[in-house]
Amino acid sequence: MKVYVVRKYKKRTRWDVNHSTKFEEIEFQTKEEALAYRDNQKVGVFDVYEKEV
User: Fold this and answer.
1) Model confidence at 43, in pLDDT bands (50, 70, 90)?
2) What span, in angstroms and rounded, lies between the C-alpha atoms of 18 and 15?
């Protein structure tokens, strides 16, 4: 089964000097839900990817 994950980074970049920044991940059942969530956010850096569970 596939789920779509939106990774929201806590800072405005994915990398902070030599370390990746902190992030939170939210899982969605459909790609449309994941993209709608990402589009509804005002600011931030996001990655959207699919994951097998």
Assistant:
1) confident
2) 7
**C-beta separation of 25 from 5 below 8 A:** yes
In a domain? residue 44? no
Instruction: Answer yes or no: are the C-beta atoms of 36 and 51 closer than 8 Å.
Output: no
pTM higher than 0.70 for the full model? yes
In sequence order, the β-bridge partners of residue 24 are 8
Count of structural domains within the chain: 1
Give 14 or 53, the one with higher predicted confidence.
53
Does residue 9 belong to any structural domain of this protein?
Answer: yes
Distance of alpha carbon 53 from alpha carbon 50, whole angstroms:
10
Name the residue range of residue 5's domain. 1-28
Residue 16 counted as domain residue:
yes
